[in-house]
Amino acid sequence: MRRVVILGSTGSIGTQALDVIRANPHRFEVVGLAAGTDRAGVEAQAAEFGVDEVALGAAEAVRLVRDIPADVVLNGITGSVGLGPTLAALEEGRTLALANKESLIVGGDLVTRLAAPGQIVPVDSEHSAIAQALRSGEPEEVRRLVLTASGGPFRGRSRAELGDVTPAQALAHPTWDMGRVVTTNSATLVNKGLEVIEAHLLFDVPYERIDVVVHPQSIVHSMVEFLDGSTIAQASPPDMRLPISLGLDWPHRIAGVGVPLDWTAATQWTFEPLDEEAFGSVALAKRVGGAGGTYPAVFNAANEQAVDAFHEGRLSFLGIVEVIERVVDRHDAPAELTRESLADAEAWARRTADTVIAAL
């Protein structure tokens, strides 16, 4: 029986994790729940699962992680506010099932230095796929990682055709049901850029050996290419319950958590190169990741400000990545990466992004 704390329990990842646990009461016990602001929602979950400890907000989530003995902490919080709970889970020696990619990307070396081997288990479908495929070989046998991207709602559009995109169109993702920020990030492919940085930090593969390919069916979730020319791919229908279940009990698999592919029906999977002229966010993320330090935090914070401005009608769709790039170009990273320097860099990035947005 694994004792589980779920952060972001009322969001998409949290509710699907509870679906997995509800169907497998003999394998998991929920011992703590944290939500953002949905008190009624988290209290209803606590009543159903017999949980005594609940929390609201990131600061209370940190307290929850530190105070409650648990085997695994699932961090499903959205945004860089998840950094504190991520660091707390690692410091307390919990297995960290990580869906909150921003905390790893923003924290960078602060997170990876704390983590023991195998302590972080990725929950993103792409990184879960890579982790599964990597079990087929040794680290020194890996030639490259290939992350797949659905292409979002604007796959196939030229840069010129993206100028008048509306927020409603950006939220119409063809495959995944996600929140506003993540769905918009998928439309700009900022999300894929963040995932490239995450893959580098999780698997210690250089950026020049991490590629992105567009796969609109979202069946192959990512691939690992080995030195002998073989490629191992993880394929399954798009359902987050599968990577969530692996995150909760890695590396063990749970029967029936997902629906297998139907190999009796004719089907086609397609793969296309990424249009880096229309979607420059991935190349920018690689540059930011290579710079390291506080640059990824600045990238993420500027993006969050730009996404808000886009949905409020103060910025165009193409303006999102333009704002990020301008803020990144103005950044002068401190000599040392600390929690304080990260907080300062994020605050600076948000102020600077607001200034750039107002001037566009």
Characteristic terms for this protein:
6-stranded parallel sheet; alpha/beta; 3 domains; Rna Polymerase Sigma Factor, Chain: A; 11 strands; Rossmann fold; 360 residues; 5-stranded mixed sheet
Quaternary: single chain
The number of distinct structural domains comes to 3
* Structural class by sheet pairing and helices: alpha/beta
Largest sheet: 6 strands, parallel
Number of strands: 11
Helix-strand pattern:
EHEHEHEHEHHEHEHHHEEEHEHHHH
How far apart are the termini? 55 Å
Proportion of β residues? 15-25%
Kindly report the average pLDDT value. Answer: 95
Q: Which regions contain 5 or more consecutive residues with pLDDT less than 50?
A: none
Describe the global form: globular
Number of helices: 15
User: What radius of gyration results from the CA coordinates?
Assistant: 20 Å
Helicity level: 40-55%
Strand order of the largest sheet: 3-2-1-4-5-6
What this model shows, in words?
- It is a single chain.
- The chain is of the alpha/beta class.
- The chain has 3 domains: 2-123, Rossmann fold; 124-239 and 262-277, no CATH class; 293-360, Rna Polymerase Sigma Factor, Chain: A, CATH 1.10.1740.10.
- The chain contains 15 helices and 11 strands.
- The strands form 2 sheets. Strands 3-2-1-4-5-6 form a 6-stranded parallel sheet, with helices on both faces. Strands 10-9-7-8-11 form a 5-stranded mixed sheet, with helices on one face.
- Helix 4 links the parallel strand 4 and strand 5.
- Helix 1 packs across helix 11, helix 13 packs antiparallel against helix 14 and helix 14 (317-330) packs across helix 15.
- The chain is globular.
